[in-house]
Every structure is written in C-alpha cells, then in structure tokens.
Amino acid sequence: MSALFRRKKTPPAEPASQKPSASGMSGAPGAGDPESSQGHTTYISGDAQRDTDRVRMLIDSLRAVSSETDSDDLLVEMVDRAVKTVRAERGLLFTRGADGKPRLRVARAANESDLSHDTTWSSQVVESVLEGGASVCKSEDNDTDFDPSQSMISLDIRAVMCVPLIFKDRRQGVIYVDARASERPFAHSDLRFFEAFADMLSIVWTNRQAIEEQLRNERIRADLELARELQGNLLPLHPLTEKGFSMCGICVPADEAGGDYFDFFRTKNDRIAMAVGDVSGHGVGPALFMSGARAYLRAYCQQSDSPRRILRRLNQHLVGDMGDDMFMSMFLCVLDPATREFHYANAGHPPPILIHGAGADPNGAGNVEDYKLTGMALGVEAEMDWDERGPYQLQAGDTVVMFSDGILELRKGDEQYGRKRLRASVERHNGGSAEELLAGIVADANAFVGEGSPAQDDLTVAVLRADA
Fold first, then answer.
1. pTM, entire model
2. Separation between Cα atoms, residue 357 and residue 273, nearest integer Å
3. Which of 16, 68, 158, 159 has the most beta carbons within 10 angstroms of its beta carbon?
C-alpha cells in the first residue's frame, strides 16, 4: 500500500503538546494540510478522513477479493470494487488476448449488474495503457488541458481512468472506469489510489491464477495416473500358454498413458490372435484411441480368423474416429496351435523378428528373419487393403519378437539403439523361455540408455514362442 502515500523526510521532533492527534482530526496543528511537517507521511488528497476511509476500503477489498474461490467471480468482484472505490458509473476489465489485443472479460454497472459485452468504451485509452502507456485520468471539469479521444467524444464520456494490471513487470490487463455525469469527475488523487488498488488486485489475481494452475496440474496428473491404471488393465496381465506355445509382453508408456498396445487372446475356431500396435503420439488422446482399437479388434477376431479381413474392418472404424494428424500402425498374426500354421498382416508397423529354433541351418544362415510390411498404417484411407502372408509353420524353438518403434528409437546422446542392437539382443537371450527372452531384451534396452534417462516414446515388446 506504499503507493497510497508520499514519503517525506523525518522532521525535527515536536513537543508532545503540539503533535497532531492520532485521528488526524481538525484542531490539531497541521490537520488537513497535505504538506504539513507533522508526522512521517502526508495524505494524497488533502482530506484526512477521505484517505483514511480509502485505506480501510482498500484493506476491506483485499479481504473480499481474497476470499473468492472462483476466478470469474474474482474478476467481477474486482470490477465492482473498482467502480465503488472511485464512484464511477461503470467498470470494465480487460485481459490481453492471444493476439495481444484487449479482451473484454467483465463489464459492470455501478449498481453491480452486468453490462452487455457489446458495450463500447474508449478503445484508444485501453489500448494505450495495455501497450505500456502511462495510467490515464481524464476529467472534463478538472483538467484545464482536457483532451478527450474521439471515442470519448462519440460516447459522451466526461471522465475516464484506466490503469494496468501488472505482475512481474508484465501487463496482464487493465481496469477501466468512466462516467458521463458531470458531477462525477476524477481527480489525480483518485488515480494514485486507483493505481494502488489495481496493484493489489494484480497480486491477488496472479496468485489465484498460480494456485489454479497448480490445481489443474494436480488434477491432470491424477487423471493421467487413472488413465495409466485403466490402460494397464486392458493389456494382458499374465503370459498365455496354449498347446506348446507361449506368449508374453510388456508395455512401458513414456507418459502416464500412451498409445502403444499389445494383446493376445483366444479367438474363433480355437485359434490365437496376437497383435502389437502404436497410435501416433503419446498421452491421453492416443491411449483412448488405443483402447477403442482394442475393443474393435477383439470383436472382429471373434468373427474372422483372417488378419487381412480383420484389419480392413478395423481400419474403416478408425478412419472415422481419428483426426487428420493421427494414425495407428499394427502387426496382427493369427496362430492355429493344432496345425502350427501362422498368418499375419502388417499395417505400417516395424517388422517383427523371427528367430528359428534348433531345426534351422546349423551354420547360422537364415536363423533370423524379418516380417515385412504388407500395407500402410490404419486410419489413413477408408478403402485401404493389406496383403496377408502365410501360412507359415512354426517349428519347435521358433520365436517371433514383436515391438513398437519406441525401443528402436531409444537414444544415448546422439546414438540410437536401432534394429541391429535389438536383433543382437534377441539372439543373445533366445536360449531360455519366452519370459526370459522378454526380460533380457528389456534389460539390454535399459542398459543402453542408462538409469534415470527419460523415454522419448512408449516402449512395447511382445514374444510368441513355439516351446515344443
């Protein structure tokens, strides 16, 4: 509240009998004289009682606006107090819009009623103060050099004040008050008080914004944690073993929720479907699309055992759901454990690695293969089609390793993990079970980036192994 007063040098001590009374009432030496040598401060208007009342009003206003819990209600209270403080006819509060121009947030009349947002004001005054100009106080009756703007003339405004809302040297907005009645002029002493009032409101408002931002972040974190928990519940919780085959996988989102996906489940005609997918981006949005794709995929796998036909139907749904900047890659395979036949289609996904078991070439030639792409990603074109590859026979010891591009794009400095390192990791750990192979792959990836390094993308790996 130091803006309310002008400081003077401390005068020589006076005899106790000549000191002004504590109340500052007339009758004491120097009472009512703004330049009195009594005391350490002088009042800004020359009216001790009026300034004392205004200080009380300022304190009361601080208490009132600080108690508001809703941001919109806070802004309304700020404007109502501003109008009441200087006995204006109306008050408007502007904040800086995204384009840097004033944005009208609150418009209030002296009777504490809302004004239409179509109301007009002195735009020249508002824009000048918002863009860094000095506070404005113009009054037709008090200013010998009164020079109204064209908008003031057209609106018949006889008095106007406008002061910035500043916090940390940045103009957040302005408070503007005006009057058309000639009996309500504004004095320059009103401007000093109004500036102090605006400074107080700036601090309250900015603190409230900071608190709300903190609460929003906490709510977002809570929502993301919930999304991560729900997403985790959609993934297979345990490995699956079926007639000599083992399936397992892991998904580690970069954020609390991600767009990566893997799944394996029994389907039509006692077959098993296994899929790995990746929605572009990561966060809550891709996670929601992933959960929808999972539901569609499981439904269509109960109606067909052809990866090509399943992807076609899934794509038709995703095209309608996804925005222009989103897509989903997916590798989908269907296994018949009884015949050991294996079919797949690959919609723009990183090709999985097939490592052959003991029956492969003893010299190592052809022990490792890559499953190629058979079409573009899902969600791009409604009438897209995919080639279906197979049937292949999975022999004992054959292993299919599926993954998202998150593991390939892991970085240590300028160096990327890449497919070559992943392939070497698969070969190194292939001697054990499917779960041991999965654990070895993830351990190698983590060792490459080092402890505590943040992931840049979701990381997903799934393993299908023919045990016998």
1. 0.57
2. 22
3. 159
